[in-house]
Amino acid sequence: GRAGKSLFEAQRVGRGKIVTHGGYYASPAAVRDGLRNGEFFLHFQPVVDLVTGAAIGAEALVRWQHPTRGLVPPAEFIPLCEASGSMEVLGHWVIRESIARAADWRRLRRWDREPVSVSINASARELASTGYGAYVLAECADTGLPPGLVRIEVTETDLGTDTAAVRANIRILRGAGVLISMDDFGTGHSSLSRLTEIDLDVLKIDQSFVAVIESGRDSPVADLTIKLAATLGLQVIAEGVETEEQAEWLRQRGCSFAQGYLYSRPVPSDEFVERFLVHRSAARP
Ligand code: C2E
Ligand code: MG
Ligand code: MG
Ligand code: MG
């Protein structure tokens, strides 16, 4: 039956890890209960300008405070939600909540500062589901958030399922001004020609290519990604920046934006507002 198939899929999708009999905890009923009980919450990680240190936006990252399992990381439960059919209900909550917070930020931001965007991760199934783009835009309309302040993060793997629905969602979103970011760039299997076929706005350098920059060592992949982004006219954001040395290396090569523990861990919306929107001085450098 359906449950059996879901569990089998859960075992395959667990990012190299073998996930056994854990699939049940992310069933649609469990996720609905968890949402009702307030077990899910979002943290936001600032995206900063590498030169000024000011936040240009933040990425929404979901967490699950499970009553018996404790704090479960998204890398563990997102694949289970995808496999068990609960991703849509969770994804809708993430979108609604992220856009509501970004609408708050817009109201709180000083009038003389650039507005900040919110980045939302899309899973493969969400992106391939009819109505995904329309749902994002409906939430923008409801909250008054301009779609231009929303970024949807997709991975090369998500785009691998290049169905008509994926293309339609991207077209609807971009048509309304939403930006599309390629997450974890360089870790998937897409070819360069494929990259130029997709309508993209942002390349995010995967944190693994930033982590190798240490004690004078270069990152050829990060270097190439920055050049590629410039050639294609895309914005480039480095992920996982943890040291000033990495930040400096990236700045020198023309990378404009970054995320990482050097600037901030993912934090509750209130803390993001307090540290990055109200008291800008807390931002580095
Ligand atoms: P991602 O979108 O590539 O997010 C970046 C991950 O790197 C986050 O892990 C973040 O906490 C972590 N990170 C940020 N800065 C640093 C740093 O300086 N050093 C290190 N070592 N790590 C850093 P997190 O929050 O555990 O999320 C993992 C993945 O789960 C995300 O990768 C994303 O693919 C997925 N995810 C998170 N939230 C959602 C969501 O709402 N929907 C979907 N579909 N996927 C999500
Ligand atoms: Mg992301
Ligand atoms: Mg990433
Ligand atoms: Mg990732």
From TrEMBL:
Residues 24-280 form the EAL domain. This is GGDEF domain-containing protein. The lineage of its organism: Bacteria, Bacillati, Actinomycetota, Actinomycetes, Micrococcales. The chain holds residues 305 to 589 of 589 of the full protein.
